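Notebook, p. 212. Picked up where the previous page left off. The plan for this session was modest: take the two constructs that came back from the sequencing core last week, fold each one, and keep the raw output in the notebook itself so nobody has to go hunting through shared drives later. Recording the first one now, exactly as returned: residue sequence, then the structure token string.
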Amino acid sequence: MTSNSQDVFARLERERERHLEELFEYLRIPSISTDPAHRDDVARCADWLLARLSEAGLATEKIATAGHPLVYGEWLGAGPSAPTVLFYGHYDVQPPDPLDEWRHPPFEPTLEGEQVVARGATDDKGQSYTHVKAVQAMLAERGRLPVNVKFIVEGEEESGGEAIERFVREDAGGRLAADCVVVSDTSMWAPGEPALTYGLKGLAYFEIRVQGPNRDLHSGVYGGGVANPANALAEIVASLRDGASGRVLVPGFYDDVRALAEWEREEFAALGLDEEEIRADLAVPALPGEAGFSYIERTWARPTCDVNGLWSGYQGKGAKTVLPARAGCKVSFRLVADQTPARIAELLRAHVAQVTPAGVTVEVDYLHGAEAVTVDATGPHAEAALEAMAEVFGRRPVRIRTGGSIPIVGTFAQVLGAPVLLMGFGLEDDRLHSPNEKFDLPHYHGGIRTVVRFLDRLGAASA
């Protein structure tokens, strides 16, 4: 077997245009899992991906769940003594709102130089599709792989991931048993500079609803005599975080926070992040946050509280003097090691009950969450990934954390007992969850090559 992967690389070069055309097809499907209006689109996207896995030469199955289906594929022709790699990804995407900020329709992928702009371009269709194209090229060129591979791709990562969580735990390492898990849903350190991520933040996501009178009221006739739910919500939200220190004010919030190790702070500082460049790119006057920590420490390794949405009263043009009957918001807490969503939910409910003004009632709903994850970025599998990225991108990868959350990663590590390799090909500025999401083409094609090299290295090491 060719050990340097050049045979497959030559095929990949010939098929670059087809790989891009397929990615465009994938991105055109508005697989928005959180919106019931797009349920058929999500199902259509699952079928599209199943077809591509089958064309690649894998045995496939669409696994029905109470929510959106799981897509499964496998090729086990390397035999029981060869390593098995489980590839994970998600085919669902975030809603594209606000639509008026997109330069092009969000589900009509557009090339801007060497960037593909579309919803899902990097999160996670573009990144995880690199796995499919790498395996397909290797099978097409050689007729076999140096290792066994399995794919599990979910359609609910952007809406809680309940189906895959249940499936992995019920499977208990049977069907999904693997020697390592590869996840490409994180970022490189910089353009052309690869990274292996070893830390993900956790998440606790809530909806807070405030109810006042039984109907909207005239703000002049009733103002001053009836509690205003919008005012009450503003007080509740303001009580969650201190703007001066950047500290979350929910009592007990920091009790379980694992402090950053000194070596981590030193390595983060050595990366040389240019905070001024970030500030200028975002066009904001400053980058405030928790006092005593750098931007990179706050975003990668300190817990946070953010309002993700607010609603109440009149939203149209002009004026309407209304005292609204209700108000609401969505709030997320990004968590770090040793914090748990269940404990944060308990603390938040107690805090909101304590600060709720008289004259209104409040409901706090916990929507979904995930625990923070720290994975081992050392060992033979990690080394194979690091070497593969170095060979393809020409630079030794760094080990980093990220502020994002991938709920299933912790479950994989716990249930499968296998190392999880967070081998991302995106960038922090790819506008994930924002208008004009993009994915750099050199990273897309480089990602495919990296997966090829990784599989070849893994196979060679076990021969």
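Okay, moving on. Second construct, recorded in the same format:
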Amino acid sequence: MLIEHLNRQLLELDAAALRRRRRTVLSPCGPSQQLQPGGQLLAFCSNDYLGLASHPELVEALAEGARRWGAGSGASHLVSGHSLAHAELEQELARWLQPHIPAAQALLFCSGFMANLALMTALGDAQTTLLADKLNHASLIDGALLAKARLQRYPHGRLDQLERLLRDCQTPLKLIVTDAVFSMDGDLADLPELLRLAEAYDAWVVIDDAHGFGVLGAQGHGSLEHFGLCSERLIYMGTLGKAAGLSGAFVAAHPTVIEWLLQRARSYIYTTALPPALAHALRASLALIEGPPGQQRRARLQDNVAQLRAGLAALVERQPAWSLAQSPTAIQPLIVGGNDLAMRLSAALEAQGLWVPAIRPPTVPAGTARLRITLSAAHEPAQIQRLLDALAATLESQP
């Protein structure tokens, strides 16, 4: 009965062009990817925004960390898995955020999903209201649904409606919850205005900076540096598997918030710690991001964004049914509408040697299926032009 039930639902996904499929990659992360099946493809789908995932210094740092610390941590942080490598990484991450969150401390997690589950469930008690943007990442949504708090969602970016919710909120504690860079649209939350509202209504702001950490700000310190914010009301989550090129995540916040997470965050307490070799390598990644190599790569990434947006804008003029999201970041969605069309366009690009995924509901709202193009500092101008030429050729072939 169960198998029949699941098979019927899988067929329904197929009929709606919503079934997901994995691809097996045979090469290191980079613009050129060897797939099985599929052959060699030029990829515009990675979150490796600075092109650090295969950087020789990080490869060597990971090997050095393994030689010093071994392959695994062996236990959770609160048992015996918290090594000096983890402690030093947390101290360095706290230093990055202290100009923006006074006296901030940092706490490492195995993934951004686990960090957001921790924030929502440990902070979202019965005395709390979570006020969340409707386009927040799935991890924030799932965490909020698991929390004991009251959940209220406001339409994407509609801070006038958020203010009405804040004004009417009756719970003692209020947490405004938002992505900094929205993962499917690439646009930025208005963090200065969110902080102003938090100060006006005695609330706190939880920020998921998965797609801003390492990319935004003069030193790559993320969205708080980008906007020049400073407040103890900020609770910051950054991931280490995107611009940082490795894996893991962290929360930086007031020391009392961090201590509470350590005591009550189940996705921290009841899981094995990151391998200490990975923590060792992440310190090398932070040095690259903060130093001249990171500055150069961020500048190159912005040049790539400008080139792609100019080309996509010209395409959209020829196909008014399509639209280009208002994104200044490495995430550049080309919104085409229908699920079938998005899948056909993705397949047509792959036939031309390009890997650009089609994103469909429920990841994005119905009727907004898209090609989610993501750029890296490792992309060359000629590669971006190749994508634009292929999109133009595909547009010409549309009925």
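Notes on construct two before I forget. The longest helix spans residues 292-318.
Flagging for discussion at group meeting.
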